[in-house]
Structures are given as C-alpha cells and as structure tokens.
C-alpha cells in the first residue's frame, strides 16, 4: 500500500489522484522497460548471434513476464509465501515488465493490495470490537443455569 498511506481506508484525501498517478507511473515504467528490452533485442541482432538465440531470449522474457504478472497479481489478493517469493526472485527480476503491467492494471481497479489490506483491517476491527466489549452488570449476581 505504498503511495497511499491510510487514504485507502475511507478512499479520501486524494485517493483517486494517487491511484491514477500510480497507474500512469506503472504505465510509463512499463513503456521504458519495453524500450530497454528493444535495445537488448537490437544488440542481439547487431551481434548476429543467430535466430535460435534470439528466439530463446524472446521466449524467456515472454514466459518470465507472464509468470511475474501472475505472481504479482496474486500477491495483491493474498499474502505470498516468503519461501516461494525467495525462490522466484530471479524469475521476477527477469519478468519485470509483467510485474509493472500488473501494477498498472490493478491501479485502474483499486489501490494495488487494497483488497488484502481491507480484509485484514476489517478482521482486526472485528477482533478489537470483540475484545473490547464490556460486561454489563455485576457478574456475581448473574443467575446460574440449572
């Protein structure tokens, strides 16, 4: 919920503007990343590595971006397993375009991660209300069930 502070709770104090700014920033970063990948592709063409290597690199970035998109998208709805995240770190780094695209598309709907945080926030509120309920009356005068 970076970039949003607590504005996601009531969706006030510039929440919509922040969401649009995150979407625009993610889209700009995605476009810049695609430009960097284009330069890498041109570098392979200049080096004349051959069509097999070029195809292999393109497929690798495509698959890694798709997996990174899915992993990032799922991370907005549920807490990811830390061990799995650690093992996927390299794949997510290669598929950075997919992660940025997931941020863009999620920011169009809601603040990225808002659904997860809202569920946790509401359950914490319920637990707090349950813990802070006061007993009424004197418990020693309570009628015993027979």
Number of strands: 0
Rg over CA atoms:
24 Å
The helix-strand sequence is: HHHHHHH
Proportion in β-strands: under 5%
Helix content: over 70%
* Gross morphology: elongated
Please, how many helices?
Answer: 7
- Mean pLDDT across all residues, rounded? 82
Quickly give the structural class. mainly alpha
Extract low-pLDDT stretches: none
Task: Measure the end-to-end span.
Answer: 53 Å
Taking the sheet with the most strands, its summary is: none
List the keywords:
146 residues; mainly alpha; elongated
How is the secondary structure organized here?
Blueprint: H1 7-10, H2 15-47, H3 51-75, H4 82-87, H5 89-94, H6 96-109, H7 114-131
Walk me through what this model shows:
It is a single chain. The chain is an all-alpha fold and 146 residues long. The protein contains seven helices and no strands. It has helices spanning 7-10, 15-47, 51-75, 82-87, 89-94, 96-109, 114-131. Helix 2 (15-47) packs antiparallel against helix 6 (96-109). The longest helix is centred in the first third of the chain and has 33 residues, at 15-47.
């Amino acid at each position: 919920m970076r970039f949003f502070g607590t504005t996601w709770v009531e969706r006030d104090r510039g929440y919509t503007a922040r969401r649009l700014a995150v979407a625009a920033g993610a889209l700009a970063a995605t476009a810049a990343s695609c430009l960097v990948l284009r330069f890498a592709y041109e570098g392979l063409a200049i080096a004349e590595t051959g069509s097999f290597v070029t195809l292999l690199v393109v497929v690798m970035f495509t698959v890694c971006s798709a997996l990174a998109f899915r992993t990032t998208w799922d991370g907005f709805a549920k807490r990811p397993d830390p061990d799995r995240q650690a093992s996927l770190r390299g794949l997510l780094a290669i598929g950075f375009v997919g992660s940025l695209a997931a941020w863009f598309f999620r920011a169009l709907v809601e603040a990225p991660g808002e659904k997860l945080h809202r569920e946790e926030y509401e359950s914490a509120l319920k637990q707090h209300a349950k813990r802070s309920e006061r007993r009424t009356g004197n418990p020693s005068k309570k009628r015993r069930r027979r």
